[in-house]
Amino acid sequence: MYFGDINHNHFLLNKLLYILLLSFLLSCQNANKQYADKAVFNYNEATGISSLDPAYSRDYSKIWAVSQLYNGLVQMDDNLKIVPCIAKSWEIVDSGRKYIFHLRKDVHFHDDALFKDGKGRAVIASDFVYSFNRIIDGKIASPGSWIFNNVDKSNPFVANDDSTLAINLKSCYPPFLSILSTQYCDVVPKEIVEHYGKDFRSHPVGTGPFLFHYWKEGEKLVLWKNSNYFEQENGVRLPYLDAVTVSFITNKQAAFTDFTQGKFDLNSSIDASYKDELLTKEGNLQKQFIGKFKIMTKPFLNTEYLGIMMDTTLPVLKGNPLKVKAIRQAINYGFDRELMMTYIRNNIGKPATSGMIPKGMPSFDSSHVQGYHYDPIKAKKLLKEAGFPDGKGLPVITLSTPGTYADLCEYIQGQLEAIGIKIKIDINPAGQHLEMVAQQKLAFFRASWIADYPDGENYLALFYSKNFTPFGPNYTHFKNTRYDSLYVKSLTITDDSTRFELYKLMDSLIMDEAPVVVMYYDQITRLIQNNIEGLTVNPMNHLVLKRVKKKN
Asked: What is the pTM of this model?
């Protein structure tokens, strides 16, 4: 064998690799030059993105990206008010059972080679009929199919003409307009979707302020400005930014470090790995970070709670003291929520002392819905009334939680033990925990509920008896005749203030019966660079970039 050939081949291979590497570095430099004078908004998405199809926009990682690419009939402003989007106006008729939308005529899909002449065509009413039917027909298994549970399946969506869309409901359902603001309801073009099929997830074509440019999964997503976007602000066509880039660094500490070095314009949440480094116990920036960037906070429509199984026919409650209302109430009184928020959460969020509906929701009312404050004396009195003075004879209660919430549960465990309630903490993997909750295998479990739409009904539906899991979100199997009648009545009332009064009655009833131990109402905490303007925060935690400006 002649080894000289091998050495020659190695030389050629190394030369080729050098040329490829040099070409790559030059292309990166050219790309950097291309964006040097552009306003590019950069953020990191640690959880990754698996689809850019709005039909699968279930979690925030997808919702944030999808909302830049698409639009729906309506949208929410920062005060959670439903305002026009592609629909310029609408009427609600037939006692709340029919919605008629009048569409703008200047909205176009993004340019794409599959359109005639490569130019995005105008959006018409039949596009919404196609998009909505796609969600409910079952062919694509969209997790958003629930949003149309209340439509009249015999004739749900009708394009009266190109600019008029009618939606027919089975019965009056006041939250429906809010539901239409979700990303599931964004409009998509039939010809593009059917051409790509499942691959539409990575070939998105919408109407939004930004259009798709590049996506290497797990590495980088790049969106470019849509120069033909229909919305304007003070006579200026939106958006102001030239591009948006999304990175996918899974290590949140590393991503935070990159933010502090100016590589990202937004740090969207505060992770436990650097919480104490960043914030004081009072929730303020540590001294070394003051002035280096801005902090934005807002109530987040997320209620963190402990659920208690109420269905006494299930084996999991056999011999369990949680069947006793006084025990459930004693647990609610038995720990200090304010102290918990200070020492474990650095005051990110608010102690939940006013019911299940969270702070930030329009129907939230702390003056009329009384929850639980720390009162160990009252807790002990309730234990005595239940036949367990100072906890004597009370069986140990098992509390199940994923590991990420173990610190909160251990805090509650310690405080309850001081009044005579012994808690055993059972830690399970997050996926397994959720599955056990859904299968009614846990008597006492950590849970949370993030609003899908900004109406208190979204939280109250968790306690309606016809929503028992696994067919609905009633994880506690709470059942109360009066509650059910109030819930049904609320769905017939279109006037918000009148409906909110019923919400308060229902929330107060939940607090009295105590199928849950509400811990805290969450908070959005964002860090942004000082040169970012126009970025707002709303309680739904949406990322609205169309009005953002970035100073060089």
From this structure: 0.89
